[in-house]
Design brief:
This protein is mainly alpha-helical. The protein has helices spanning about 1-15, 25-30, 85-90, 95-100, 100-115, 160-175, 175-180, 195-215, 215-220, 225-240, 245-265, 270-285, 290-305, 310-325, 330-340, 355-360, and strands at about 45-50, 50, 120-135, 135-145, 155-160. Helix content is about 50%, strand content about 10%.
Length: about 375
């Protein structure tokens, strides 16, 4: 994947002068810029006991010579033998393994896969573009997040710059010093920031970095990791919805919902509820009441009978109104909404989903 990116970027960036400039005033102009070691792009997938390696014997003599730390005792993770492959390896006692019936062995593999090996997400940098936004300049990496599901499903996508990855790495290091000790990150450099080779190598490094984080259960459930994937999309979708750009917002809400479905919801249901509210509002404004009602039903299933959750009454009201519009049964949700109103748990009429969406603060 990185080799394809390298081929495309060589031509696009061959004449990009700033990447070749020596460290000096430009380092101040582009504080985000950073470099990997000038190693061979093919060697990026190599690991030292589960730690990414960015060392090389071909460093530019003008570059800083700082080696990345590697922990020889750290457990392997990422692109090495996967947990599933480990479970499928034959037992060391060959005689015992030969006595198992084929069906029993298959059942054992299936049970191990379902209970011990989590479903892993895959990450691929599909494009990387140099963005010139004077006075700043940076590379924007677009990653496909590939999870379990139908093979024809379009993968979720995110676009992040180096500073976003670095912030995630820094935050996780503060909170999870032990697990993060075995995960390396491309350090900052001051030269050759925008060459095709550097961008391709760093693309591969980011894929491996996220893959390592997903391989550690403690890190996989970290709120900061979920924020990295979802929060920028939610903020932009909320902004577009509030300004009436519903079609553009709908794509972002749908992408955010897919990301949350793949990642899980360790911090509770509030962000998925906000996402479903955004989807319902956009579908309704785009004259698709059926999809809007389906989003409301999903939200009500997540909420159950959580009183007095601020989203409960607005979703009930939206479901009643959309059911009436579609000629569908609304008696159950109507009775539930009336019960909330009689108990004084929600105003009459309750706030709309769009009102909640505008007032919600995403932090």
């Amino acid at each position: 994947m990185a080799s394809r990116l390298l081929h495309r970027l060589r031509h696009a960036l061959a004449s990009d002068g700033p990447g070749e400039a020596a460290a000096g005033p430009e380092a101040e102009q582009f504080p985000e810029s950073s470099e990997l070691e000038d190693d061979d792009a093919e060697g990026l997938s190599s690991r030292l006991s589960g730690t990414l390696s960015f060392t090389s014997a071909e460093d530019d003599p003008d570059d800083e010579d700082e080696d990345d730390e590697a922990s020889p005792d750290s457990p392997p993770s990422g692109d090495g033998t996967s947990g599933e492959d480990a479970e499928r390896s034959p037992p060391p006692d060959g005689q015992r393994g030969s006595q198992l019936l084929a069906r029993q062995l298959q059942d054992f593999w299936k049970k191990s896969r379902n209970t011990l090996v989590p479903q892993r997400l895959l990450f691929e940098v599909t494009s990387a573009n140099v963005v010139k936004d004077p006075p700043s300049k940076y590379v924007l990496y677009t990653l496909a997040v590939i999870g379990p599901g139908p093979p024809d499903r379009q993968p979720a996508q995110i676009s992040r710059r180096y500073s976003d990855f670095e912030r995630l790495h820094r935050n996780l290091q503060r909170q999870f010093r032990g697990p993060m000790a075995a995960i390396s990150f491309p350090r900052k450099r001051l030269r050759r920031n925008f060459t095709a080779e550097t961008i391709a190598r760093r693309s591969r490094a980011f894929e491996q970095f996220l893959g390592h984080l997903q391989a550690v259960p403690e890190l996989r459930q970290a709120p900061d990791l979920h924020d990295f994937f979802v929060l920028p999309e939610l903020r932009r979708a909320q902004s577009l919805t509030c300004t009436g750009l519903y079609r553009e917002a709908l794509a972002l809400w749908a992408n955010a919902w897919q990301l949350q479905t793949q990642l899980g919801t360790p911090s509770g249901p509030d962000r998925p509820l906000l996402t479903l509210a955004g989807l319902a509002v956009c579908h309704q404004e785009l004259e698709d009441p059926g999809e809007a009602r389906a989003c409301s039903e999903k939200a009500l299933q997540l909420l159950g009978d959580k009183r007095p959750h601020p989203f409960l009454a607005p979703f009930l009201e939206a479901h009643v109104r959309l059911s009436w519009r579609l000629g569908l049964d609304k008696r159950q949700t109507e009775a539930q909404l009336q019960s909330l109103q009689e108990a004084g748990l929600t105003p009459v009429p309750p706030p709309s989903l769009k009102e909640l969406l505008i007032k919600e603060v995403l932090d």
